[in-house]
Each structure stands twice: as structure tokens, then as C-alpha cells.
């Protein structure tokens, strides 16, 4: 079991480490991080999300295990906003506590452990994982950002101003490089037409570059981040993601009558380390960048222990 976990997590740690080395050696300057983030956010991410969702047929999905997973994520997300206050920072931290690295680590790990049967359960979650969590985070971030820009945090803010901000934020959320390709891909999948090879291959190549490039970018940012100043916050975020999230999913699965392999897959997925998309969001909205960078790295390293423990208990 330790070997399976190591095989899944080692590439993540090595990719982050290679980015860190590139940053320390000056191969990539700190000023380049924003440009590369934009490339990933506006080109690679939409390609991966559209292609993934274009293969999803809603009638084939089993939603009860997924419902338990997202209920846990929603409770954790809401609790973070409640404790931290409604802001861009709290939204990014809430995403960090709930967004798993399902593609880079999860698919390989679940396939190795449980084969095709477990993979079907995971892919049901993966097909709407980004749709739910990234769209929710985008909405909260857009509302918080527009509220800050409009100064509606003042006591005299009118109800009409608040509603206008919510409507503007909803529009920005839909026409956004994350939710829009998800929605378009899902709608396209229902036509049953499929994607022509001449289009599908470039989309596949662009999408396959997302995870490794994002993890290398985490390492580059880490090279310019003073982790020592953020280790307590990073450890706390990693603890929420690696321990609290799977415990909550496990408890809700029991309450909702989800058991067997579906429950195991959901709990193990919740125990996965923080996904690199959280880092991209922190860079995009320029909030909690150093803390999130340190947290992604720490969560990935701690997963060697916490994920192994989770697997030992669940299997």
C-alpha cells in the first residue's frame, strides 16, 4: 500500500521540486509567474474542462456518493466563510480546504487500488468536481471583489447596490474561463455528437499540460516565498484538507447510507492533497498567494502519511 501511495504522490512532489529548483536557479523569474498563470487559466484549463465535460452523460451518473462528498465540501466551505468572514481571502482558503487533486493523483491512485469499478465512481465525481467547487468559489470571489471595489462594506450600503453586485458577479461567474467551458462541455455532451479528432487531439494535448505545468508553477512560486512565515497557516490548511475533509465525508456517507466501495472511493478522494487549481485562483485574484503556495506543497508532502493512514483504515 505504501508503494501505491508513493507511486501516486512522488510525481507531484518531484514536479513541485523541479519548479522550485528552476526558480532558485533563476531560470524563471518571479515576474513571469503571472503571465504563465494567465496562460494556464485562460487556455489550458478551459481545454481540459471542456473536453472532460463533453464526455459526461448525466443519466449515467450515480449521485448518492457524490452528494455525500459535496455536502461535506459545502459544509466545510461554508464554515470557513463563517469563521474567516466573507472575502476573497476566505473564499480561496475555503477552496483550499475542499478541492482535491483528483486528476493528477486521484485517477492514478484509485485505478491502482480499485480498478475500473472504483474508477467509474471517481470519474462520476471528477465530472462535476470542478463544476461545483470552482463555480462556487468563482461566484464568491467575484461578489467579494465587486463589493470591495464598490465600497459596499460601508454601513450605508443599499439593498439595490448589493443586488446589482450579485447580478454582475453572477454574469462574471458564467462568462469565466472555468465555469463557462464546463457548462458548454456538459451541454455539448448531451447532443451525442462527439468531438472530431482534429479538434479533440489539440484539446487533449493542451489539457494534459495543465497539471504538470501548474505544479511546476507552484514550485517556482515556492522559490520566491518565505515558507517559514506561513508554515503554521499552511499546516492548518493542510490539516483541514488532508484530515478534516475525509473525516466529514466518512461521517456523512454513514448517515446517508453510502457504504462499500463508493464510500471508500469518496473518503480516499477527500483525503487527497490540495489541488493546484487553488494556487491558480490565488494567483488570479491576487489573494493569499504565499500561504496557498506553501499549503499546496505541505499538503502534498503530508499526504504521504495521512493518505496512507486513510487507506489503511478504509481498506
The structural domain count equals 1
Tell me the CATH topology: Na+/H+ antiporter like fold
CATH architecture: Up-down Bundle
Tally of contiguous helical segments: 12
Question: What order do the SSEs take from the amino end to the carboxyl end, as H and E?
Answer: HHHHHHHHHHHH
Rg of Cα set: 19 Å
Number of strands: 0
Helix content: over 70%
User: Strand share of the residues?
Assistant: under 5%
* Largest sheet report: none
Shape: globular
What are the segments in which pLDDT stays under 50 over at least 5 consecutive residues?
none
Write down the CATH class: Mainly Alpha
Q: What integer is the average pLDDT? A: 83
Which structural class should the secondary elements be placed in? mainly alpha
C-alpha termini separation: 10 Å
What does this structure look like?
This protein has helices at 2-24, 32-53, 63-84, 88-96, 102-150, 159-174, 179-189, 197-223, 231-255, 260-270, 276-284, 289-314. It is mainly alpha-helical. The protein has one domain (2-314): Na+/H+ antiporter like fold (Up-down Bundle). α4 (88-96) runs antiparallel to α11, α8 (197-223) packs across α12 and α9 (231-255) crosses α12. The longest helix is centred in the middle third of the chain and has 49 residues, at 102-150. The protein starts with a helix and ends with a helix.
Topology:
Elements: H1 2-24, H2 32-53, H3 63-84, H4 88-96, H5 102-150, H6 159-174, H7 179-189, H8 197-223, H9 231-255, H10 260-270, H11 276-284, H12 289-314
Amino acid at each position: 500500500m505504501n508503494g501505491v501511495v508513493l507511486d501516486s504522490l512522488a510525481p507531484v512532489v518531484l514536479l513541485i521540486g523541479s519548479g522550485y529548483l528552476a526558480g532558485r536557479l533563476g531560470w524563471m523569474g518571479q515576474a513571469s509567474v503571472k503571465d504563465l498563470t494567465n496562460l494556464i487559466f485562460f487556455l489550458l484549463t478551459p481545454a481540459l474542462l471542456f473536453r472532460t465535460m463533453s464526455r459526461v452523460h448525466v443519466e449515467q451518473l450515480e449521485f448518492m456518493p457524490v452528494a455525500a462528498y459535496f455536502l461535506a465540501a459545502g459544509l466545510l466551505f461554508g464554515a470557513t466563510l463563517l469563521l474567516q468572514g466573507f472575502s476573497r481571502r476566505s473564499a480561496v482558503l475555503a477552496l483550499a480546504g475542499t478541492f482535491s487533486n483528483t486528476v493528477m493523483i486521484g485517477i492514478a491512485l484509485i485505478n491502482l487500488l480499485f480498478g475500473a469499478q472504483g474508477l467509474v465512481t471517481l470519474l462520476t465525481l471528477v465530472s462535476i468536481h470542478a463544476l461545483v467547487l470552482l463555480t462556487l468559489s468563482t461566484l464568491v470571489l467575484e461578489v467579494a471583489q465587486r463589493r470591495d471595489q464598490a465600497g459596499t462594506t460601508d454601513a450605508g450600503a443599499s439593498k439595490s447596490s448589493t443586488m446589482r453586485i450579485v447580478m454582475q458577479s453572477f454574469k462574471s461567474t458564467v462568462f469565466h474561463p472555468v465555469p463557462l467551458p464546463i457548462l458548454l462541455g456538459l451541454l455539448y455532451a448531451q447532443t451525442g455528437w462527439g468531438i472530431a479528432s482534429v479538434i479533440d487531439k489539440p484539446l487533449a494535448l493542451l489539457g494534459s499540460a495543465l497539471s504538470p505545468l501548474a505544479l511546476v508553477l507552484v514550485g517556482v512560486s515556492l522559490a520566491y516565498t518565505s515558507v517559514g512565515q506561513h508554515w503554521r497557516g499552511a499546516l492548518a490548511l493542510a490539516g483541514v484538507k488532508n484530515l478534516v475533509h475525509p473525516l466529514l465525508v466518512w461521517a456523512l456517507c454513514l448517515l446517508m447510507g453510502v457504504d462499500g466501495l463508493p464510500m471508500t472511493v469518496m473518503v480516499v478522494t477527500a483525503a487527497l492533497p490540495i489541488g493546484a487549481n487553488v494556487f491558480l485562483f490565488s494567483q488570479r485574484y491576487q489573494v493569499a498567494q504565499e500561504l496557498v503556495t506553501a499549503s499546496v506543497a505541505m499538503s502534498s508532502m503530508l499526504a504521504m502519511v495521512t493518505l496512507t493512514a486513510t487507506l489503511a483504515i478504509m481498506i
